[in-house]
Write a structure and sequence with these properties.
Blueprint lengths: L1 H10 L4 H13 L16 H19 L4 H12 L6 H4 L2 E4 L2 H6 L10 E2 L2 E4 L1 H11 L9 H11 L13 H19 L7 H18 L7 H21 L8 H27 L35 E3 L6 E3 L4
Antiparallel strand pairs: 1-3, 2-3, 4-5
Length: about 325
């Protein structure tokens, strides 16, 4: 039933109470402690349920934009209920990117988090990325106004109000980043600040691990917004009074910001030392040697006929004019 629930949500209109019931039930499955022995690669029942629940939440998130902020808020209390042991922390299977495995540009988890050509991340991180990516829509433009403006400026590319289709992704990234760092910045033990700080560190580790994978383009966007917010908080703290800043949060922010920037700097350094090179291009315009005899290479296979023929300037083979 859970495996087919996302298709049901996509095809049927539902009221708010049923949607909240479905999303709450699906979110609760992420608290299941998946076995450290029978994991996602062995098709464990817990992993199957969690993956199907993520698809269900993403279907609700995609179709009902008015409920997105509520679902994002429901994710944070769930983080405090997740399994915390190292063996059961990362159970969501992801493929290891060829680039990261070649350069070593990954944020390594515990020793049990990597098996052969696969890696594991937290299910809550996979859910966050899936929610962000589910907000993507096709780009749109106001054709009438845009074309009038383009004609006035004599520039066919003068489109001012085109929409990239990522506004929903940006809104979710902003909300998630803001609420996560607000919870980490609370003074003392209020609101579980001490619990959310290691959650932030583990989240950044997972995002750095999958940021080169084409399946998770939202990882780069979320890292970008996290780094912007962390950098702003650090700059603001440098000019604020000491009693207005939580020292523990500053240490957490500095560690998180340094982890992101060092990973990016290391990736840039490796790219400079080992630049990607395309194979040498072939000169398609170079003239080919003329054949000693005329050859019929028409695709019809009918051979030489008493009809109009066309000679190819490149390969100098003949083709039937009617076929061309």
């Amino acid at each position: 039933m859970i495996e087919r629930a996302d298709a049901f949500v996509a095809c049927n209109e539902m009221d708010d109470s049923l949607l909240f019931t479905l999303s709450g039930a699906a979110l609760s499955t992420l608290t299941i402690d998946a076995s450290p022995i029978v994991r996602a690669d062995a098709a464990s029942l817990a992993s199957i349920i969690q993956v199907s629940s993520m698809d269900l939440i993403a279907a609700i998130f995609r179709r009902y934009p008015r409920h997105r902020s509520i679902i994002v808020e429901d994710v944070f209390p769930l983080m405090l209920k997740l399994p915390a042991s190292k063996k059961s922390l990362r159970t969501f299977l992801v493929k290891k990117s060829a680039a990261s495995s070649r350069t070593g540009d990954v944020a390594r988890g515990p020793p049990t988090s990597t098996v052969d050509d696969h890696d594991y991340i937290q299910p809550i991180c996979a859910l966050t990325l899936l929610l962000i990516q589910s907000c993507v829509v096709m780009p749109s433009q106001d054709d009438d106004e845009q074309m009038e403006g383009a004609e006035d400026s004599n520039d066919s590319w003068a489109l001012k109000d085109d929409h990239s289709g990522l506004q929903g992704c940006v809104a979710v990234c902003n909300q998630f980043t803001s609420q996560m760092l607000q919870r980490c910045a609370r003074k003392g033990e209020e609101g579980g600040a001490s619990e959310f700080r290691p959650i932030l560190s583990n989240l950044i580790d997972d995002l750095l691990l999958v940021r080169h994978l084409p399946e998770y383009p939202a990882a780069g966007m979320l890292l970008l917004y996290l780094s912007h917010r962390l950098g702003s908080d650090l700059l603001r703290a440098s000019s604020a009074a000491k009693n207005q800043v939580e020292a523990t949060y500053l240490a957490t922010a500095m560690d998180a910001f340094g982890k992101i920037t060092s990973a990016v700097a290391g990736s840039l350094q490796r790219n400079r030392e080992n630049p990607f090179k395309l194979p040498e291009s072939m000169n398609l315009c170079a003239p080919s040697p003329e054949p000693t005899e005329e050859i019929n290479r028409c695709f019809c296979g009918r051979g030489n006929l008493d009809t109009f023929m066309v000679d190819c300037d490149r390969c100098h083979s003949w083709h039937h004019g009617s076929c061309v």
